[in-house]
Amino acid sequence: MSATMQGSAVGDLPPLDESLYRRRRRARGLREDVTSFWFLLPILAVFVVLFLVPLVQTAYFSFTDFNGYSMDMNWVGLDNYRKVFTDPSTLQGLGFTILYAIVVMVGVTVLAIPLAVILNRKFVGRDFVRSVFFFFSVPSLAIMGMVWKYIFSPMKTGVVNSVLAAFGLGPVPWLSNNSLAKFCVIFIAIWAQIGWHATLYLAFLQAIPADLYEQATVDGANRWQQFAHITLPQLMPGIVTSTFLLMSGGLKVYDLPFTMTKGGPGYSTYTVTQSIIQQGIGQSQYGIGSALAVLFFIATGIVVFLQMGISNLISRRFE
Amino acid sequence: MGTKASSVTAAAPKGMNFTTRKRIGSAVTSVVMILVALVCAVPLWYILINTFKTIPDMSANPLGLPREWTVKNYVGAFETVPVFRSLLNTLIVTFFAVVIQVLVGALAAYGMILRKSTFTAAVGAILMVAFVVPSQTTLIPLYRMEANAHLVNTLAGLVIIYLGGAVFCYFLIVGYMRSLPFELIEAARIDGAGPLRIFWSIVMPLIRPILTTVVVFQTMGTWNDFMNANVFLSSSELRTIVLQVYNAVGQFSTDWPSFMTITVLALLPVFVFFIFCQKWIVSGLVAGSVKG
Where would you find the membrane-spanning parts of this chain (chain B) (predicted)? Predict the structure, then answer.
């Protein structure tokens, strides 16, 4: 602490010689520029090697018929982009990815906020319930996809179907029906992420000053009014963070549908990422895979910025 | 619902004694929430309990307790699948990837707050773009690049791929760092401490809350990653634990209990890690998001 006082004391001294002071300051500025550069160097290296070079390559390959092996590639212009937009499997992948991202985002948000509000109240067994919900977010979605595949097994031994059989209901072809498979994947994604996002909201709820509620109670506000006029506005930063994570994660989804259904049945749970990997690495159609990657980058960028803009607008309205 | 709305300050509750009513309300919440939690946890129970059953027992009663407890699945799992090897692979990759990422991110964050210039502004903008780039976009060129450098199918190659996460670390850390009292750094400089020393012995301890959050976040992401591991690793002895589970689906397609056993062995270390870290995660989240 004494160091701080000493520092500010030195800073308050009036400069004796104006030009000397300025020269010294400029020298120090330069030195700080150099220091700052050294600290930024590692991340710049990461940026160049892992982002810039690959991005430029992806953009370049997207205009060629490069197959990944032979270097005699031809410039094909927008051909790959045309193929992407006319390939039914890719379009289905795009459709499911968007559906997944939006439904999961809305579903998790709508369920996690009330859950967090309840977990913030006092009741017996609260710590237990909190821990259970928190631990859902720990296992990898890839592993959970594989486990749920067994649970939703169309055979009679599948858990869901054996429970249904106990009520005299016939086996449901969960993962072999197009719409049901979509439903199952989205349902599990919501199930797996509620706990984590509720934990996030809980952290924000605990940061709301208690006197806001006391004041509101004195003013005669009921519980619903308190929720709408205090809790929700105070949660806005949390909602911005949570929906941002859900949206950007949702658009990149790959693990869960891939391990559960491999994108099937047909292409009903196919995702953009799976399509990029399949075309670019699996089938050596680098050009098409790259075109898809470029489009995906642009689309993600637009969605992310739109979402940030909207969240900012909403949170400003609440302030 | 209406009755629960009253609080300590509300006067003269009708009919029933106020505290009694509050107690009943909390009891109802308890029962409902514990039930909901248990129902949600059924899949985890399902994985665990079936590792102690034989195949016919599991098909006959998928959710109940085993008729006869058996540890054969565990013995079999260790015999057929190199569980320890895979866990070690995952541990090595996660450790190096997370440590380097967080360090690079923290160094960059300090470099950014140290000085405001056109250069740092440009770097900030560049990193913003990198933050938005989905890893899928760069996957194909990165694969080619690593193939040329003979890094495909090595753990080091996988670690390098994960270093892209440094950008995410940077964003979480820089927000927190901006809220630090800058006088402390200034004072240390006047006392003659070099930039690296200031970074290491003053800045790093001060940002410990956000560092914990970032470490936990990245550990979770790296340990659980499937996409990169699946693309960049091909030989069986290098498999991470998630890949091993994925592989077990094919290997034990009809032997569900064995598959569940591998799953339990894969999940166990992460659960233990999180039991130890739970407190820090929650407190760190607030610190990170409020100030970030």
Answer: 24-48, 87-110, 122-143, 155-177, 198-217, 256-276
